[in-house]
């Protein structure tokens, strides 16, 4: 059976020889199945040219397709030749039947088509970049920068962490003497927590709690830090660590006090903060967004200046044309007057 099926799939015969081959196939399959095989008359139905013939003392009707168990043999008689396929067309029809009626199968692009499409886009961009018109070049850069800005904003939305509802925190009230004492003792100590380009994330709060295990105060050094950003860091760290701000120095250093009744929390890194890696990714996207917005402002200013220059040049050309036309009119009038004077002088002579 296994050796006969590939031959039947590949070989093309006239209808009569194909029918005989199908009979042999069914006999071998029936011998394998034994008594549990279906009746011969129910398997096969008449096909042109072979219906009603007696083969091997039995009458066969050819059926299309013939199914034995899980194997389907399909006979195709288009074009005057018999073509057999085992399970191919039936499986394809089943797959087509499983697809929803509303959705059509997506046509996949070949690799060559994708490469050609990319080449076309690059050529189009190259033409705009090397255009002799400055306005075309500026507008192309501006559109590209705006697309990048939208993409960066979408990326930064993924790093927005929703704030969880926090219990009410009652900060301790310190007197001026206590603040002065804590400030002096905190300045003498060398323990500190750095806040770098990643900003405030879970690791910063964790380090603060680890320092508070042995020290009452801790210094948070923000570097690099934009003007006014140190106060934002102070508010954020106060909310996350439940500490008290003692002093904010001009060199972007914040002094924190843990509190009189401080108890180290079980989870020292708050859940509503970013990890170290994600904080770095967010910083990079923010930097890129900042530079892109500055570049967009620069391009918009260049485009505005160019349009002003074009308008000024156009007005200057119109005024020069009017001046030249007036000069020609004056010259023509003066020429007419000179000609008249010459004619009068000739007549007098």
From TrEMBL:
Keywords recorded for this protein, A-Z: Coiled coil, RNA-binding
Domain CRM, residue spans: 172-269
Q: Which residues form a coiled coil?
A: 289-316
What InterPro entries does the entry give?
A: At3g25440-like (IPR040286), RNA-binding_CRM (IPR001890), YhbY-like_sf (IPR035920)
Asked if the keyword Ribosomal protein belongs to this entry, the reply reads no
List the Gene3D superfamilies hit by this protein, alphabetically: YhbY-like
**A Pfam entry, by short name:** CRS1_YhbY
GO terms, molecular function:
RNA binding
Recorded superkingdom: Eukaryota
List the protein's name.
CRM domain-containing protein
């Amino acid at each position: 059976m296994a050796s006969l099926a590939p031959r039947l799939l590949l070989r093309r015969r006239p209808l009569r020889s194909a029918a005989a081959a199908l009979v042999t196939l069914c006999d071998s399959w029936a011998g394998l199945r034994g008594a549990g095989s279906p009746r011969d008359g129910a398997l096969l139905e008449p096909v042109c040219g072979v219906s009603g013939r007696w083969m091997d003392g039995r009458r066969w009707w050819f059926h299309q397709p013939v199914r034995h168990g899980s194997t389907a043999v399909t006979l195709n008689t288009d074009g005057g030749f018999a073509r057999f396929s085992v399970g191919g067309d039936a499986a394809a029809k089943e797959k087509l039947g499983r697809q929803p009626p509303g959705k059509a199968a997506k046509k996949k692009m070949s690799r060559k088509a994708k490469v050609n499409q990319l080449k076309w886009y690059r050529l189009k961009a190259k033409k705009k970049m090397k255009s002799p018109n400055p306005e075309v070049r500026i507008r192309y850069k501006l559109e590209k920068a705006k697309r990048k800005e939208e993409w960066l904003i979408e990326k930064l939305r993924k790093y927005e962490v929703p704030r969880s509802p926090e219990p009410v925190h009652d900060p301790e009230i310190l007197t001026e003497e206590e603040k002065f004492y804590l400030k002096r003792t905190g300045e003498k100590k060398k323990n500190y927590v750095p806040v770098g380009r990643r900003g405030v994330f879970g690791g910063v709060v964790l380090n603060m709690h680890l320092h508070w295990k042995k020290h009452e105060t801790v210094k948070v050094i923000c570097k690099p830090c934009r003007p006014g950003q140190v106060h934002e860091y102070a508010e954020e760290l106060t909310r996350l660590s439940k500490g008290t701000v003692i002093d904010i120095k001009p060199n972007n250093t914040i002094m924190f006090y843990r509190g009189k009744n401080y108890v180290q929390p079980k989870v020292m890194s708050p859940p509503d903060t970013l990890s170290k890696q994600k904080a770095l990714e967010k910083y990079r996207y923010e930097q890129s967004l900042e530079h892109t917005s500055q570049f967009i402002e620069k391009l918009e200013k260049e485009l505005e200046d160019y349009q002003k220059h074009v308008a000024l040049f156009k007005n200057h050309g119109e005024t020069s044309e009017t001046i030249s036309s007036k000069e020609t009119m004056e010259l023509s009038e003066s020429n007419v007057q000179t000609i008249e004077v010459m004619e009068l002088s000739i007549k007098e002579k």
